[in-house]
Amino acid sequence: MRDKRFRWNYETRVLAGALLATAPALLALAVALGFALDDHARAAAIWGVVALVTIGLVFVLRRNVVYPLYTLSNLLEALREGDYSLRGSRARRGDAIGEVVLEINALSQTLREQRLAFEEKSALLAKVVAALDIAVLAFDAEGRLRLANPAAQHLLDATSAELAEQTVQSLDLDDCLAIADVRMLERSFAGGSGRWEVRHARFRENGRPHDLLVITDLSRALREEERLAWQRLLRVLGHELNNSLAPIRSMAGTLTKVIACEPLPSDWRDDVQGGLRVIGDRAEALARFMSRYTQLARLPPPNPREIEFGAIARRAALLEQRVAIAIDAGTTLHLHLDSDQIEQALINVTQNAADAALAGGGSVTLRWRVADDALIVEVIDDGPGLPPSENLFVPFFTTKPGGSGIGLVLARQIIEAHGGTLTLENRRDVRGCIARLRLPV
């Protein structure tokens, strides 16, 4: 057994210390009274009165020492319980206890402001999570559901009361919690099915690990983007088809009227031949249009092999005969690319720049450099600049007479298949446009 030594409490120790401090004075007073007075009874009475007064003052001292500590204890207890409204009074600077009380008051005010800010942010976060159309779920260390926003309730087709204390197993979300970071899933939930982006993260609360699931419905966004893409494509296809079918329909009606005439006019053969020629030309134009569409839709995946980029760039520039393309050669680069596709992309971009330059000063520059582990290729012209349109990369959209509308689209499709990007922007210093191709090195 451990020896439990007796220890006085703090108040008793203060009282005993004060009594010990006054004991020498009382002893000296007793000796002095014994020598000064022959009447020992009177001397004892005087000493007793002094001793009682001293003991009373000691108890007063004990109370004055202990009472502020009880006040501090009450203030600290209020802080521990989360009550930050309690304040110590009659505290002043330059006083030891007063300094402590003032610091506790300042601490209480700081904690009150921090709790208010935390509650406001928590309320805002709760409203944001509730307003999200993305399912957010949180599970504790035992796999029990602790948080589910309205989107999660809709996804699981259950109310908050029905989801209370549900587990990962009962909700059939084991495969989602097995995801390390982010993954696309094709699966069904109680509230719907389709393609989902599932994000899994870990966090700690009260020192224990918790799991956070964020499930985003991709089907709706993909369907909307697909619908918009089809709208843009059909708008351009309809425009091209109408351009071909309208004259064919008109000419067919004219020829029907010519043949229906009795008797036939003397030049009916010339009219029929001319009409059939128009119909043939428009049919051929429509066939070329469908051929271009097939070329765009059936672009094969790239077949990369080691090439010297400068040779491809110079060859693409030489193929443009209308405008002399200036070469601003960078360093010699050996890259793994599909040379045929990259050359076709450069031809399309330089041809587009040449078309623009013919309307301006007739100057085109092709340059390249390496920056941030990427090959930057720029085709610069001094043409009129980009037209005010958002359809530059929409298939078959063109602002040039006789243009096909697939050159830039095909070039961007090739560059993106190689993991790069193609952007267009107006020059800032002078008139013209910059086509910038970015390919990973």
UniProtKB/TrEMBL annotation:
Alphabetized UniProt keyword annotations: ATP-binding, Kinase, Membrane, Nucleotide-binding, Phosphoprotein, Transferase, Transmembrane, Transmembrane helix
Every PAS domain range: 121-192
InterPro entries in UniProt: HAMP_dom, HATPase_C_sf, HATPase_dom, His_kinase_dom, PAS, PAS-like_dom_sf, Sig_transdc_His_kin-like_C
PROSITE patterns listed in its UniProt record: HAMP, HIS_KIN, PAS
Catalysis: reaction(s): ATP + protein L-histidine = ADP + protein N-phospho-L-histidine
Subcellular location: Membrane
Every Histidine kinase domain range: 236-441
EC category name: transferase
Molecular function via GO: ATP binding
Domain of life: Bacteria
EC number: 2.7.13.3
Residues passing through the membrane, by range: 44-61
Main location: membrane
Domain HAMP, residue spans: 63-116
Protein name in UniProt: histidine kinase
Lineage: Bacteria, Pseudomonadati, Pseudomonadota, Gammaproteobacteria, Lysobacterales
